[in-house]
Amino acid sequence: MINSAEVRFLLLPLPEFNMLPLGGFLDKLRFSADEADHSQQRHCSWKVVGLEKNHVTSSSGIPIAIQHTPADINLCNYDYVVIFGCRTARQSQQQAQYYGAFLKQAAALGLTLVSIDNACFTLAELGLLNDYKVAVHWRHVNEFNTAYPRLDVIEEKLYYIDKKRISCSGGSAAIDLAVAILSRHLGQTWAIKGLADMLVDENRDQLHQLKSRQQTIHHDRHISRSIALMQDRIATDTSTEQLAAHIGLSRRQLDRRFKLHFKMSAHQYWNEIRLQHLHWRLLNSNHCLASLADEVGFKDTSYLCKVFRQRFNISPGQLRRDADSKRN
Q1: pTM, two decimal places
Q2: Residue 66's domain is classified under what CATH number?
Q3: Is 155 exposed, middle or buried (CB count within 10 Å of its CB: 0-12, 13-18, 19+)?
Q4: Are residues 260 and 176 in the same domain?
Q5: Do the Cβ atoms of 2 and 149 come closer than 8 Å?
Q6: What is the pLDDT of residues 153-189, one digit of tens each?
Q7: CATH number of the domain residue 316 falls in
């Protein structure tokens, strides 16, 4: 049967995919596909594909059925392959060995590859993002830069369209990306159809700045701003004095505020952010300690090991070995 839809999608959810971007993207396609709320695949069409006709389980534990495999699909009948990444970057990287042949074939045939959330790690692992710019979720920018230092990361964008590669940081931004893609094929009127039904006020463009990242996370606005800067500059050699000056305080004034609310100096609080990030990365990546040290702004790995052991009562190497033994 010939598919007469103007634009055709293959949706590929990887194991432990996040439900929000898949649901949001798919529902936007549904509303734009037909008149009213009839949900017939007229103007755009889609199929969910996987390696086996089985179920793939989301990060929330909810499974969805896979009814189509690459063997059932004629890629020439599709325009986009949309990959929804795993819960962690490490999992997404590991999936490259299983999905690589399918994705490389799709790219060779000229389909546009769309990475949602951590799926950018899958495409990067396969070399399918070479010479392309990529949008990465703000929480994973340092992780991506460590793994793929030669790739061009676009920061502070919900999504980025670069010819035959499109990347989206995930979450509800998948809805905005769906609108952007559909507008190229169906026009703006059909692209935004159904947003009111989805209780979405308006679609955001790729330059939209997240208000949730700018909201006060502490009632003291100086502390709130300081913590936001600490998180953004976790890998830099910015000093506490420079950070304090950036928000219009002296080092002593900033320390006084942190000691009042957290019983520690600003420098100690910043180190805690770095050590917690390192702890998580040790458990969820295969990168060497030297690379991870750069990622959290430590130049001396020996010193890093010392402060890590003082904080967690275990060395970085032992933490990783213990975690690996539990997995096996």
Answers
A1: 0.80
A2: 3.40.50.880
A3: exposed
A4: no
A5: no
A6: 987 789 999 999 999 999 999 999 999 999 999 999 9
A7: 1.10.10.60
